[in-house]
Amino acid sequence: MKYTSRLLILLLIVGIGFPSIAQQLSPERKQAVDSLALEKVRDLSKYISVIGSKETPWSEANRVIDRAEELFMQNSEIGVSSLARQEISYFSVRKYFERLMRLNYNKVEIEWYNIEYVSDLQQQPDGTYVGVITIFQRFKGYDKEGRLVYQDTTKKDITVYVKRKETQIGGRLIGFWDVLLGDIRVKETMK
User: Fold this and answer.
1) pLDDT number for residue 6
2) pLDDT the model gives residue 11
3) Whole-angstrom distance, CA of residue 123 vs CA of residue 133
4) What domains sit in the chain, N to C, each tagged with a CATH number?
5) Euclidean distance between CA atoms 178 and 36, whole angstroms
6) b/e string for 96-116 if b means 16 or more Cβ within 10 A?
7) Nearby residues of 42 by Cβ (< 8 Å), 6 or more positions away
8) Angle 93-101/27-52 helices, nearest 10 degrees?
9) For 170, what's the count of Cα atoms within 13 Å in the CB-facing half-sphere?
10) How many CA atoms lie within 13 A of 90 on its CB side?
11) pTM of structure
């Protein structure tokens, strides 16, 4: 429901009455799209915290995984790193969330901070705009006794895609800009 209401708000802000031909992003529309992209990243951060929490019931975590998947382009991957190994592993979005649910800690805390654009949206030949949002993720894993047994901070780049789409509302064809997340690449993992 929340996603639908955001979509309708976005339609009102940036899309009503546009012809179906490809459009340029005006400064006002770009600001609205940037805001929506950052909101989707913040939503993802909340979803990751819920999915990773050992207090979240299995059925609720699976429901949240379904919602989180809606934020992504098809075939997107999320990188996983550790201080214990140098290689970075990439998993499909669903596989990443399923692995997150099964982490072998009694308690997990995941926090995202310093969420900001590092590259402005650039138009591609197909009319899609692509940008990168950088976040820092602080991960903490605790044992049964409540002792912190692992922690790291990871810098990640999230690819953002902005595409022109159309939908029909009340028999009228409405054009709008939609924002989807792409790959999440690990840039650096530190203590």
Assistant:
1) 52
2) 43
3) 16
4) 2-14+23-190 (3.10.450.50)
5) 9
6) bbeebbebebebbebebeeee
7) 112, 115
8) 40
9) 3
10) 11
11) 0.83
Q: Alpha-carbon distance 60 to 48, whole Å? A: 12
Closest CA to 178 of 76, 75, 70: 70
Q: Which of 103, 111, 119 is nearest to 158 (CA)?
A: 119
Three-state SS sequence of the chain: CHHHHHHHHHHHHHHCCCCCCCCCCCHHHHHHHHHHHHHHHHHHHHHHHHHHCCCCCHHHHHHHHHHHHCCECCCCEEEEEECCEEEEEEEEHHHHHHHHHCCCCCEEEEEEEEEEEEEEEEECCCCCEEEEEEEEEEEEEECCCCCEEEEEEEEEEEEEEEEEEEEEECCEEEEEEEEEEEEEEEEEEEC
How confident is residue 7, by pLDDT bands cut at 50, 70 and 90? very low
Q: Which pLDDT score is estimated for 31?
A: 85
